[in-house]
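Example 3.2
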Amino acid sequence: MAEETTARTRVERDSLGELNVPAEAYYGVQTMRAHHNFPISDLRFPRRFIRALGEIKGAAAQVNSDLGLIDSHLADAIVAAATEVADGKLDDEFILDIFQTGSGTSTNMNANEVIASRANEILGKERNSTTPVHKNDHVNAGQSSNDVIPTAIHLSALAAIVEDLLPALDRLHASLLAKSEEFMPIIKTGRTHLQDATPIRLGQEFLGYAGQIERGKDRARVAINELREVALGGTAVGTGINTHPEFSKRVCALISKQSGVEIVESTNHFQAQSTLDGVVAASGALKTIAVSLLKIANDIRWLGSGPRAGIGELELPAVQPGSSIMPGKVNPVIAESVAMVCAQVIGNDVTINIAGQSGNFELNVMMPVASYNLLQSIELLATSCSNFAEQCIDGLTATTRGPEMVEKGLMIGTALAPIVGYDAAAAIAKEAAKSGRTIREVAREQTDLSDEELDRVLDPSQMTEPGTTLAAGG
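Structure, written as tokens:
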């Protein structure tokens, strides 16, 4: 308990000695010491992580009360204080840098001190009192930083995926499907190796994009499955020392009921605390979603390039002026923002992979930075998917450029190959390219096919569905 108080600070003691703590702070000496030790960055644990900590501490107090390990009146005060933490009412009290002790012990103690102090205040004691609720003996009962922090990582990431990312992916998927249907009548020249290929429907291209996001949703669900299993109950090294055998199972059930996000106790606590394998796997799923988004964003940018000197098959919504020097220029800024998000998520995955390799013996020691990057990736993907759909995809319109180029395309000659043979079709394509004429014009000279047969064989719409070209040429 504080022994000296000035207008601005109070003095608290721990095993290392005395330290000044802001007089009105709910946190205490261990938080303050960590604050002094890690003046590294302005990065802090995000709101969702603090919410998860509050949910874990509140559920733990309730279960410890039910098990007869904490007096009910103390547990009620802890639950009330933890709920305030979960609801964001005490966020200013969480002052510690992400780059801190690798187990996240500093932040776990930050939560313990804040909740204990607030619980004592609820019980009519001074804000900075250490009795009757004690930060270790009561708020941290049955727990260790080594199982609480990885559990908070999983719980917060699960909530972010379920509440934010999956709905955003649903939104983008629906937008791409709607454009696919709208653009299905439009036939254009396909491209492989950035070169002309056989015709494709613009709607089929967008059906491909929608398919990527549909599978992205499946990958997000894989991430959910990886994160459902939590470390809580293993305490220090996975053996569960100083915890009731029913504690973790009961806490997980209570959190699942209260939060709507299902978590379960790990079947192997030794792997749950010594690794971040589930986080690494979840991040891999997020990275794959980012790679899919990057392909879509880049295609949209290319298809909208121009408007006169580029591909120009799409017209993107004009959301802002594009240049400080070139009047009238409009840039694909929404797609560009998506691309930058994807780059960040891919970089975050690299950090998480390195963090995952830092499980030395019984504990991983890069949990805070892994948590920060995982939650940032989920948030960035969710917000950018929604924004991409709303401010870009929904407003896309097709130009006439794609259909106008189909007849001039050389690769429609592919449909001649089953009829005149590959070599003859290649010779027709080469002559058309050399002379600047169309495939139709050269084929009329070099084959015995009638105009009616050429119309049937070189019908672009027949080239966009499996088997129809062979039927047309038969």
